[in-house]
Specification:
This protein has 350 residues and is of the alpha/beta class. It has three domains: 5-82, OB fold (Dihydrolipoamide Acetyltransferase, E2P); 88-247, P-loop containing nucleotide triphosphate hydrolases (Rossmann fold); 267-350, Probable gtpase engc, domain 3 (Ribonucleotide Reductase Protein R1, domain 1), CATH 1.10.40.50. Helix content is 32%, strand content 23%. It has helices at 5-14, 47-51, 122-135, 152-163, 202-210, 260-266, 268-274, 291-297, 303-344, and strands spanning 20-27, 31-36, 39-45, 65-71, 76-82, 88-92, 100-105, 109-115, 138-144, 168-170, 191-195, 220-221, 226-227, 235-238, 244-247. A six-stranded mixed sheet has the order 10-9-8-11-15-14. Helix 3 (122-135) crosses helix 6 (260-266). The longest helix is centred in the last third of the chain and has 42 residues, at 303-344. It is an enzyme of class 3 (hydrolase).
Length: 350
């Protein structure tokens, strides 16, 4: 197993003499399947781990390096800690209260899979790219179902206008054409995660990379080219060449969690144009001397891209307001939990 340097250093400094190291393959509601040097173990969290975990981010996620006490004869183990992460791919969890849903951690590449049929959606791609730039991993765009596309050159041109040199791979997973180019990135020791909407062909692609039928594939609703969920949970797979891939369920909604740096990186063309606006606080709506609106009038910038940028900005600002309130509540609950523990354990008062 190839572990990144920061996690290995933490393990050798704090845990090596007492615990074993492993990597989380799958999560089942706080029960984890973990890959170790001696095989896979089904692991639970230690009591101390549970007590010291205050948010979803504190718990293990697929791709995490963890320290554990193995019970090899039983095929089980106990998890004690999560080692430092080098990347974290997240989205806003569903529900009325804001919170983070971790999709995958410790990945080198995030492969954003688009379908070259009616599911080719640049506005959704812009949303994905924001979260990828925030994650610490590198984005790669997979254009799947090339066999169903009659306007490839046109779509490649549209793609380049919003991705600014992000690598892309054109392929057909069903025809098993083009997917070998992914191995230019997924070399030994590297990890990639595949994300995208339902029905874009992620599971078919992963089966092609693995060389065997492991993931179920879903059919397409022909009335709207939308797909069914084939993958139902997150799972890490080892490739024959020593690389790893993580498959995740298709996502019909992708709310932004962290967006500050990612928004700037994904829309750097608009940010650069805004520097030439007459007013420093230009909102790019009706102001005279707006360089961004001028770029739309001359065809340099697509109006839909500006509208999506403004929509995502509003979404980020709203989330920041909601998150500040949620953090105050979480901090209050944290100290309630600590005070309760102190009352129940008088030795900790000393």
């Amino acid at each position: 197993m190839s572990i990144h340097e920061e996690a290995l250093t933490a393990y050798e400094r704090n845990y090596k003499n007492e615990f074993t190291i492993g990597r989380v393959i799958t999560e089942y509601k706080h029960i984890y399947r973990v890959l170790t040097e001696n095989g896979e173990l089904l692991c639970e969290l230690s009591g101390r781990f549970r007590f010291n975990s205050y948010s979803h981010e504190d718990y293990p996620a697929v791709g995490d390096w963890v320290v554990l006490t193995p019970r090899n004869a039983e095929g089980k183990g106990t998890l004690h800690a999560v080692l430092p992460r080098k990347s974290k791919f997240s989205r806003l969890k569903a529900g009325s209260e804001p919170g983070q849903q971790i999709i995958a951690v410790n990945v080198d590449y995030i492969f954003i899979v688009l379908s070259l049929n009616l599911d080719f959606n640049l506005r959704r791609l812009e949303r994905y790219l924001i979260s990828v730039w925030e994650s610490g991993a590198s984005p790669i765009i997979i254009l799947n179902k090339a066999d169903l596309c009659d306007s490839l050159d046109q779509k490649l041109g549209q793609l380049e206008a919003v991705t600014f040199g992000v690598p892309s791979i054109v392929m057909s997973a069903l025809q098993k054409e083009g997917h070998q180019k992914i191995f230019d990135y997924l070399v030994e020791g590297k990890t990639g995660v595949f994300t995208g909407s339902s029905g874009v062909g992620k599971s078919t692609l992963i089966n092609a990379l693995l060389g065997q039928e492991i993931q179920k594939t879903g059919s397409i609703r022909f009335d709207d080219d939308k797909g069914k969920h084939a993958t139902t949970h997150r799972e890490l797979f080892a490739l024959p060449n020593g690389a790893f891939i993580i498959d995740i369920p298709g996502m019909r909604e992708f709310g932004l969690w962290d967006a500050e740096e990612g928004l700037t990186e994904s829309f750097k063309d608009i940010e650069e144009m805004a520097g030439s606006c007459y007013y420093n606080d230009c909102q790019h709506k009706e102001e005279p001397g707006c360089a961004v609106l001028s770029a739309i009038d001359t065809g340099v910038l697509e109006e839909g891209r500006l509208k999506n940028f403004q929509k995502l900005q509003r979404e980020k600002e709203y989330l920041e307001r909601k998150t500040n309130k949620s953090r105050q509540i979480a901090e209050k609950n944290k100290y309630k939990k600590l005070n309760k523990e102190l009352k129940n354990n008088p030795y900790k008062k000393r």
